[in-house]
Amino acid sequence: MSAVRRLFLGTLLCAAFAATVRAADAPPHAVSFPSMDLRADGTPVPLNALWWTSALPGARPSVVVLHGCGGMYSTRPGHENALNARQQAMAELLHRQGYNVLAVDSFNPRGTRSICTSPYRGREIRPANRRLDALAALRWIGTQAEADAARTALLGWSNGGSSTLDAMDQARADAAGAGLPAFRAAVAFYPGCGAYLDRPYRLQSPLLVLVGASDDWTPAAPCVAWQQALQPAPLTVRVYPDSYHDFDAPGTPLRVRKDVPNGAHPGQGVTVGSNPAAREAAYQDMLGFLATQLK
Known about the structure:
The chain is an alpha/beta fold. It contains six helices and ten strands, in the order αβββαβαβαββαβββα.
């Protein structure tokens, strides 16, 4: 990316980050639609979501946003009905760039708020389930007059990032020739790439993976190896130095979470926390990628 473009994007980011301390220009609409995932009784999982519509005229590009393992909402006592800070900041940032934004809640409709402390093997909500939430969200966007469904990207963090990888896989048996909608592009923040190294995978559209070099929850190395294994697929992996899981979460002190049983060293906990420099660099990379892919 040129120095001029980085300066321009940096200016946009500074303005967007300053704006997150006040209310968004346009509040989101609460919407609902059925997932393509089915409950035990064969009926679709009913999904809740928040929909920010662009103030710019015409049918605009959109971004579907998938939360991480901690859910879409705040864990602070008394603020449980408010979006968590990272989710709110991202929605506002993308909205201010002229995108429609659809933030999908995969957890509350399934009776939980968080799965971070559940072992991977014991989880009932998996990336394969949330992939079907994402595809249902894309299908819903196709019914909205203010959206150009052909210019829709998917973005997810951590568990939502892994779900993003699942949603972009055209090698899945139910994806080939099934007439399912397709995302134009996708961004995954610190997904678990290791699960995709040893299985057939066909990337349907350009994918940008953003991960911290020091991440001990979803390490960077499998993502780098995955990129090499998939060449010449349109997969780009960016690794940010001195950064752990949740490096883009605003104002989060670095700490070790002993309550998380997963990670590179199971049972020893995982490190989480902000790195403002990495956050700014990653968001610049993200905005440049989305501007190119959704133009």
